[in-house]
Please model this.
Amino acid sequence: MIGTMQVALTSWRLAWLSEISRRISFLVQMLFMCINDAVWVVFWLLVFSHRESIRGWERDEVLVLFAIVTSTYGVGIGLFYGVRRLGDRIRDRDLDPYLAQPRPVLVRVLFSRIHPPLLGDFAFGPILFAIATGGDDPMQWLRYVMVVMFAAAIVVAFILTWESVAFWAENGSEIAGVAFTAITVLSTYPSAIYAGVVKVIVFTVVPAVFIGSVPAEIVLEPTWRQLALLCGAAAGAWIVALGVFHKGLRRHLRAA
Amino acid sequence: MSSARPTRGGRLTSLYGWLAFTSARRRDLLWSALFSSMLISIITATLAFLWIAALPDGQSIRGYDALKMVWYIAVAEAAVNGVDQRLMVRLGDDLRRGDMTTELLRPVTLVWMVMSREVGRSIARFVLSLPACLLVAWAIAGPPPSWLGLAMLAVTGPLAVIVQMLLVLGATSSALWIGDTTAAWFVLQKLVFLAGGMLLPLEFWPGIWGDVLMVLPWASTAYVPAHLAVAPSAGRFVELVALQVGWIALLLGATSYAWARGERRLMAVGG
Model:
């Protein structure tokens, strides 16, 4: 276990060093992502300049939701970007060098890359959160950090599941791209706008509400029920992800 | 008897035209269009749900009710999706890694070759992804607010795709100086989303902001085809198409200049 942790931390450190060796590019990419996020804030400000609320969601509540989503992607995909490249690596047989090594393949994959642009999200989220809430309630900050951790775990598990499709399908990487876009897009809007089948989808197949709306509700008006729901979603997402990944990996090993 | 041999310029023009035509017929384009259609269908549907929730019971903002908003979004999404959203990153990587230097061996101008190839692909992608967006809009909000507006897309759609592609190619030349196009791609993409009117019509901007944005190049990529599709008028059609054509001419010059400089740099220092 300690050996695995050491491998993970060393992989992560190498990923960091590799990225910050091009310091200007690293910072420019982070800055541009912050600008990108600011564009979405402008979008919401424009929408709410014409509407007081949308199905009960007011401007500052939507901004809190957006702050949580950006932090979630910063932590989840920015720091564990290896998971987002898994499908490509399976297709290119780039996982094979890991197979002969004694440490778990998944750990090597997860900690293999970081993504500077998404670290811009990581920086932007808390700033927006402070602006939207006033930033003077320590308990709210605590809840913010906690829900971001849970939501990031769900995002990583979800992407791992879909990237693992590449073990079976040649276009697995593209399919994972569609899934990634789906969860990203659907999570940035309040769940109240969805109805019917779409509402069922965002709670199950594409668990987008557990990245945006549910965490935002926990931060703004916490209830034990919502917290239990978020924890359950994170556990469920990881059970599915590990099952699919290891099943796929066994198939890959047999083929190799 | 006079010689019928075409000039070098004429031969090259037909070569670029042929390149655009054959690029549009590549089979891998179908897969790419299929996946991107799935993506924009999701995005279109999500934004459609947002506007249906924001504009209940026939309410409207600046003349756009829920039906018009949903169709506006569908057309704008299809127009923006015409250009492969990874194109800039892909070309940037080719430039950075030096793969593009092998293209310099060909007896053609690099930027014109890339442009011809991508125009063909982009217009084909637009034609393939438009039905997906329109179907989503119809399924969620109902039939289109104007059939005449949809017919205008035959002109405004391809022009919008060409303007966006020229913006992308112009910005791609930055890869030669900062080494990576990912961040620039994000910013350009978001300018198209917001200043181009893909996420919401430019009339929604306060004060003179909307008027200013309407004459900038980004408006020609999404706002022009989407606005005319839901609120068509002959006068506005002529005015906005002239704007698109004007931007194409200007961007063509600017992009050719930027790439020519980049090409010289590639020759001097390599990829």
Observations:
- The first strand of chain B starts at residue 60 and ends at 61.
- The two ends of chain B are 49 Å apart (CA to CA).
- Chain B touches chain A through 32 residues (CB under 8 Å).
